[in-house]
Hints:
Elements: E1 3-7, E2 11-15, E3 27-37, H1 39-44, E4 53-54, E5 58-65, E6 75-78, E7 81-82, H2 88-91, E8 102-104, E9 108-109, E10 116-120, E11 124-126, H3 133-136, H4 139-151, E12 159-163, H5 167-177, E13 182-187, H6 190-197, E14 202-205, E15 214-219, H7 226-233, E16 234-242, H8 254-259, E17 263-266, H9 272-280, E18 290-295, H10 299-306, E19 313-317
Parallel strand pairs: 8-9, 12-13, 12-15, 13-14, 15-16, 16-17, 18-19
Antiparallel strand pairs: 1-2, 1-4, 3-5, 3-10, 3-19, 5-6, 6-11, 7-8
Helix pairs in contact: 4-5, 4-9
The chain binds zinc ion (2 copies).
Amino acid sequence: MLSLIFHKKKGLRLQTDHPVPQHGYDEALIKISLAGVCNTDIEITKGYMDFQGILGHEFVGVVVKCREKGLMGLRVVGEINIGCEKCSFCRNRMKNHCPERSVAGILNKDGIFAEYAVLPIDNLHTIPDSVSDEEAVFVEPLAAAFEIIRQVDVIPDNRVCVLGDGKLGLLVGQVMSLIGCEIIVVGKHEEKLAILKNKGIRTVLSSDFNEKGFDIVIDCTGSPDGIGIALDIIRPGGRVIIKTTTSKKRGIDLNHVVVNELSIIGSRCGPFPVAIKALEERKIDVLPLISKVYPLNEGIQAFEHAAIRGGLKVLLSM
Ligand SMILES: [Zn+2]
Ligand SMILES: [Zn+2]
């Protein structure tokens, strides 16, 4: 099968003769329809996570082989963390933190930039007919945006600032606006901020931004500098949520965190059912976030496009 593979020495390349993966008893073979290139994929090609193999973790596809007949032929998206099912994390519904976990396209398991992929049946979620493939491919990053309100109590009285108008920033901005709190999204690109402005969400260009004293600041900049800016504009006792993963190390002044009794919360993968429901109920607009769809055999060009800073979502069609 055709697949997009990253190798530390050989770099990113297309392989036309990769064997179709075998599915185990509790797994399903999925024919991938559409996949999203994520900033994490780009960071992996720069050395993040030390990963080698088929890249990719955002997808929608169709189940073509599995023991559960009810799933056959259905459109699905899939959670990417695969736990050992035995440790205390796995037993307490925290398989995302299983020390033995693998993560599709990120850690010890091939990802989904290929014609076929295998995932545990338990990781799959079916997609309602009213949600298109182009929308469903956003479930994984949208779930990551919803993770914030699973981790942190946000009330309508809170002043919230989202740093970054990348793909994730635009999703997080929309999710936070559902709560009805005072929110501002800071970005560098007028045309991207306009997507939120059209939904009545307050936005500002970073060059014009000079507000401080937020109760909650969410770093979606994708830049090692984002956390420093967040710490600068948070109120004492406030909460900073970090969504940015980067291959570069970050230097921050922890004295500022101590003196101002700040909470710093890392935030990664989130609840898929919540994200699917939000798409079904038309609460979140994801289609304006699509920049271009490339066929998988133009995967290298797709990556070059996705790596341009400030771009929107690049999709791969299988
Ligand atoms: Zn991602
Ligand atoms: Zn485990």
